[in-house]
Amino acid sequence: MANPSPLRRSFDRSIVEGSIPSAVWRLAWPTVILNVVGGLQGIVDHIMVGHHVGHVGNAAIGVSWQIFLVVVVFVSSIFTGMAVLVARFAGADRPDQVNRAVYQAFLTAAALSLLVFAPLGYLMSPALLGLVNATAEVRAEALPYLRIMFLFSIGMMLFFMLSGALRSAGDAQSPMRIGILMTVLNLILNVILIRGLGPVPAFGTAGAAMGTVIAGAVVSGGTMALFFTDRLVISFHRTMRWRPDPVLIRELFRFGLPAGFQGVVMNIAGVLLLRFVGSLELSAEAQAAYTVTYGQLFSLVTWTSVGLMGAAATVAGQNLGAGRPERSVEGVRAAALFGVVGAAALGVGFLILPHQLLAVFGLEEPAVLELSVQLLGYLSVSAVFVSVALTYTGGLQGMGDTRSPLYISIVSQAILPLGMCWIIETTRGLVPGDIWLAILLGHVTRCVLSVARFRQGKWKGINVQVGSARV
């Protein structure tokens, strides 16, 4: 195999040689900005749909995304496996192996998105919406939205792949710029498609899905073209092996599948939790409160935490690849400290400004407002636990231990909250506070188990091997 072009951007060696807090910050802040900007897109969708369609439209987007995320996280499992390989090989300064891992992840993700999930998702959408106890009016708004997302999700999947690859290789700023471009395009399209503009009719809730998939396809296609240049730290060349590599794909799934199953478990649990929410006396109002409060406002916490999670994974994986595990531990601790500070500040905001935050979404029904304020109180406590749990999850996954977070999620995000809701429902009947408490206890449990597992240090014995390359 030919050596990469001498013009190719080199890996950032300060991640394995310089200050750990600085490395974490350099990797985290662009991702946090990207998550905030991208998350604002979801908030704007809810605001526009809420004012144009009403709270039924908000509920429709919420339940649709909860279902669609099951597919997203499974396909993204390949990207988790890719990230483990990329970080290790980047830490060991092996660019050819980095490029191979990214290309094989692209082939696998494209095949799954186009040939498996698109047709199955389209056919199964009605049954999936019935599973979450969505009312007839919510299902009417959600069905076209969900089908569009299933059929044309390839652009969004490629964006996740390209961003994750660059971030794991130490370049967090390129994904930020690409993501901001996609969000701006998405906003423009949604202004046109949700409300209508000129000769373009108002598509309402379906217009939000149309804008998302079109923006994803355009921006991801342009980014893929950049991979065939030497402008990025990862590049594809004519001398590469273009056919699928079964050995490398198997390695992607070895590390990625546990993370995929973890995501599936968490999102199926979320769907089933929505079912409990839908069984409450004020079903549509409770689902709207859950969707806006937990699905949108609490994203202010997860945007920051997911950025730190990615930074922890990259710093941990690259330093382990460079043979410096003590720096890996230091990186995860630094990420967790950043997360605690940010999450605590947001939690205070939830407590003192609940009505102002909810007013942005156009929520006016008294019942929806009351339920939303109540849930924000629980989430203000959850914020710190979620942030710490995610950073330590990133550390474990960056080291190649993707199984432990799966088992932890099964216990904390499925068995505990769903079991608690089921027991209460069968004994005395559920009230909203029971579900909100179950969510909080699940977050606390996930945090405690994640930190305890990381401190055991068993990740030190996990090796990555592709062909003759072993790190």
What brief labels describe this structure?
mainly alpha, two-stranded antiparallel sheet, globular, disordered N terminus
List the helices and strands and how they pair.
Blueprint: H1 14-17, H2 20-52, H3 55-91, H4 95-131, H5 136-151, H6 154-168, H7 173-195, H8 205-226, H9 246-278, H10 283-297, H11 299-321, H12 325-352, H13 354-359, H14 366-399, H15 403-427, H16 432-456, E1 465-466, E2 469-470
Antiparallel strand pairs: 1-2
Q: For the largest beta sheet, what order do the strands appear in spatially?
A: 1-2
| Termini separation | 20 Å
Strand segment count: 2
Mean pLDDT across all residues, rounded? Answer: 85
The Rg value, from CA coordinates, equals: 22 Å
Strand content: under 5%
Shape type: globular
Q: Give a short account of the largest sheet.
A: 2 strands, antiparallel
Tell me the number of structural domains.
1
| Helix fraction bin | over 70%
Structural class: mainly alpha
Low-confidence stretches: 1-7
Secondary-structure element pattern, one letter each? HHHHHHHHHHHHHHHHEE
Explain how this protein is built.
The protein is mostly helical. The protein has one domain (20-455). 80% of the residues lie in helices and 1% in strands. The protein has helices at residues 14-17, 20-52, 55-91, 95-131, 136-151, 154-168, 173-195, 205-226, 246-278, 283-297, 299-321, 325-352, 354-359, 366-399, 403-427, 432-456; strands spanning 465-466, 469-470. The protein has a two-stranded antiparallel sheet with strand order 1-2. Strand 1 and strand 2 form a beta hairpin. Helix 3 (55-91) packs antiparallel against helix 4 (95-131) and helix 3 runs parallel beside helix 11 (299-321). The longest helix is centred in the first third of the chain and has 37 residues, at 55-91. The chain is globular and about 60 Å long.
